[in-house]
Design brief:
six-stranded mixed sheet; 9 strands; globular; three-stranded mixed sheet; alpha/beta; Spore Coat Polysaccharide Biosynthesis Protein SpsA, Chain A; single chain
């Protein structure tokens, strides 16, 4: 079965860091990586229309669709194994933890009523309204859904809050498409509320509508969560692993994260005082040591992996040369 990880890069908005996370995920899941652009994949098309015609331009039986303002963690398992082929793998659009939860629910209802009015129908909104920024689709099961969504989108033009997303939800309700509601970790919206980018706490961060997403996506460490990375460290460093794990468990607590975010500007302000400033800077660096140590250890692990790959490639070349001389 042909699998693909697909995204859109219109206006060159996809940064290299995000692209590497998509490519790494596709490689782990034995899928191809497809980056749809107006130049080589879908010329003269808008990004929302391109999403609804993904199977027209991508040769795959199953597709993980992911928006360009998202990032995939380096140890995320294959969503194709989690979601059955006959179901649409999605995550709920509006979560109670959102600050604008009631506003978003009202906007969903408004879009639904607008489509009903324009189409002259009275379809009840009895479907879990899902987010279209991350979806697991199958060619045979969901081509009809995409075609119906496209026709609805063309009728509505730009009268919806979420153009293709509301159209897809409405079409799914019309056609009775079975949904596979995946855990929020597969499409964690508003990750800017987490407040740190040295590791990821969920499989997929989706920065939908975030103001500083362009800056964050360039620097976020997607390779692994800190706890997983420590498990892969060499056994000859148990004491360091124990210290960092101890600090990590305390920094993961929400109150600790909020405290660090509040303390940082205070440290910068008081840092101008000669003696007190030096003490506060040293204290803050000690508290945040696990975050900085995590990135350093991660870089060392990447270097080791690259060296191992190069060593293996050289050994293979030497074996081929030896075999040729014997022949």
């Amino acid at each position: 079965m042909r699998l693909a990880v697909v995204t859109i890069n219109f206006g060159n908005v996809l940064c290299d860091n995000v692209r590497r996370s998509f490519e790494a995920a596709a490689s782990r899941w034995r899928a191809s990586y497809v980056e749809m652009t107006p130049d080589n994949t879908c010329p003269s098309m808008t990004w929302d229309k391109c999403k609804l015609e993904v199977f027209r331009y991508v040769e795959a039986d199953r597709v993980l669709w992911i928006d360009a303002d998202a990032v995939i963690r380096g140890d995320a398992p294959s969503p194709f194994d989690i979601c059955p082929p006959d179901k649409l793998g999605v995550v709920k659009n509006t979560i109670p933890r959102f600050l604008e939860y009631s506003t978003l629910i009202a906007e969903e209802d408004e879009d639904w009523a607008t489509i009903n009015q324009r189409l002259g129908k009275n379809l009840p909104k009895d479907i879990t309204f899902f987010n279209a920024g991350m979806m697991v689709l199958s060619r045979g099961a969901h081509e009809g859904l995409l075609r119906r969504s496209e026709s609805t989108r063309e009728v509505m033009e730009t009268k919806l809050r979420w153009i293709e997303q509301s159209a897809m939800n409405y079409a799914a309700a019309e056609l009775g498409i079975p949904l596979q509601l995946m855990d929020e970790t597969w499409n964690y919206i508003h990750p800017e509320q987490v407040g740190h980018w040295d590791w990821m706490e969920h499989y997929v961060y989706h920065f939908a509508g975030a103001k500083d997403r362009d800056k964050i996506l360039k620097v976020i460490n997607w390779r692994m969560p800190l706890s997983n990375m420590l498990g892969e460290r060499p056994a000859e460093r148990p004491r360091m692993r124990k210290i960092v794990t101890w600090c990590d468990t305390r920094l993961r607590h929400p109150s600790a994260k909020r405290l660090l975010l509040c303390v940082k500007p205070t440290v910068r302000t008081l840092g101008r005082i000669p003696v007190l400033g030096v003490l506060l800077r040293y204290l803050y660096r000690w508290v945040t040591l696990p975050l900085r140590l995590n990135r350093t250890l991660d870089n060392l692990q990447i270097i080791r992996e690259k060296i191992a790959e190069l060593t293996s490639a050289v050994q293979n070349l030497n074996r081929k040369d030896c075999d040729e001389h014997r022949d």
